[in-house]
Write a structure and sequence with these properties.
about 350 residues; alpha+beta; seven-stranded mixed β-sheet; three-stranded antiparallel β-sheet; 10 helices; 14 strands; globular
């Protein structure tokens, strides 16, 4: 890995700040679509036309044509130039950052993640996990990982079964978003054909989307997540890594605002994952340990105060959490070298979930 120069790090931080401000201050001008006026029996009515995530044109009734709806249409038109100007600024920033880190992006995968963002998946609590999160964690920490460690054909999306009341409930139709791409995505059948699919793939392509959710009971049956109009596969030990996610940016010509785990939690979670993989995916354990070691090595240099609290939170979740975390830590240090920071487990009894 190598350290990203301070100018590029500053640009990346600025990009995240600007995109968060834009997201928080969206106006009528931000809506993609156009107004139209229809005359019915001599009276005029205002409609807004836009394409939904599945690519179908929809028409939304706004109201009768009056001073209020006229002002709404004027605001939409007047703000378009500001939206376009801000969009160009984001593109320039993204290109500057990508030039500073010599980073290539997988266009097909970026299209998929962008479609999820456009459908409101990340606004609705979705968190990217897996290698995409590892790559984004590096940018947040000011480093670039070796290219061979960031290659993947999977998009792993983790979602909570329920969201906090503070999050506005919106529809984020994942199957419709994938259909709109016209890339040939289909729902992958499960061994038990009565179970709904939790994976989407493209024939003759390795690209796939896996939807995951924390396991809260003994059943391995897929869980229907209504707000995403799809099912998710329940996984043990997932809750820790998607709590209080970080906001990051997927770099492309037009950047995409995404959610990823906190880098320190991502690393700690990988310690456990390396120990609980089944036989079919056990070959990925060394990669888990490598990613954990890379992140923790950077953190012990730049943010050592993040590590012990995250470790305490992890091992304090129950005996199994502690057992697998300590085994993963030992395996990581044996394979890649001991950390300079000595991690100590809490002396108080763990809180069993």
């Amino acid at each position: 890995m190598y350290e990203i120069d301070i100018q590029t790090q500053t640009l990346y931080a600025e990009l995240i700040d600007i995109m968060q401000i834009i997201e928080a201050s969206r106006t009528i001008a931000s809506l993609k679509g156009s107004f139209s006026i229809k005359e019915v029996k001599g009276d005029e009515y205002v409609y807004f036309r836009a394409y939904n995530p599945s690519g179908q044109l929809e028409e939304l009734y706004i109201g009768p044509r009056n001073d209020q709806t006229e002002q709404l249409m004027r605001d939409h038109t007047a703000g378009k130039s500001d939206v376009m100007e801000m969009g160009e600024k984001l593109k320039r920033l993204s290109l500057q950052i990508r030039a500073g880190i010599v980073m290539k992006t997988d266009k097909a995968m970026t299209r998929v993640i962008r479609s999820l963002a456009d459908a409101g998946v990340f606004k609705n609590g979705g968190v990217l996990v897996g290698t995409h999160a590892f790559q984004a964690s590096g940018l947040m920490l000011g480093v670039m990982w070796p290219p061979e460690t960031t290659r993947t054909t999977d998009v792993d999306l983790a979602v909570e079964r329920k969201v906090a009341v503070a999050i506005p409930m919106i529809d984020s139709d994942i199957p419709a978003a994938l259909d709109s791409l016209q890339m040939g995505f289909f729902a992958v059948p499960r061994l038990n054909h009565k179970d709904p699919s939790t994976n989407f793939a493209i024939r003759n392509s390795q690209l796939r989307l896996d939807v995951l959710t924390p396991k809260t009971q003994d059943s391995d049956s897929p869980v229907i997540i209504k707000r995403f109009n799809c099912a998710a596969e329940p996984l043990s030990y997932l809750s820790y890594v998607i709590e209080n996610p970080s906001v990051s940016v997927l770099l492309d010509t037009t950047p995409v605002l995404i959610n990823i785990p906190q880098p320190v939690r991502y690393a700690m979670h990988k310690l456990i994952v390396s120990q609980v993989r089944d036989v079919s995916s056990g070959v990925k354990a060394p990669k888990d340990l490598y990613q954990a070691h890379q992140i923790l090595s950077v953190l012990q240099e730049n943010r050592p105060f993040d590590i012990q609290p995250a470790w305490d939170n992890l091992v304090g979740r129950g005996p199994k959490w502690k057992k697998y975390a300590e085994a993963g830590l030992a395996a990581m240090e044996k394979r890649f070298g001991k950390l300079e920071i000595e991690l100590s487990s809490p002396s108080t009894p763990p809180n069993i979930e």
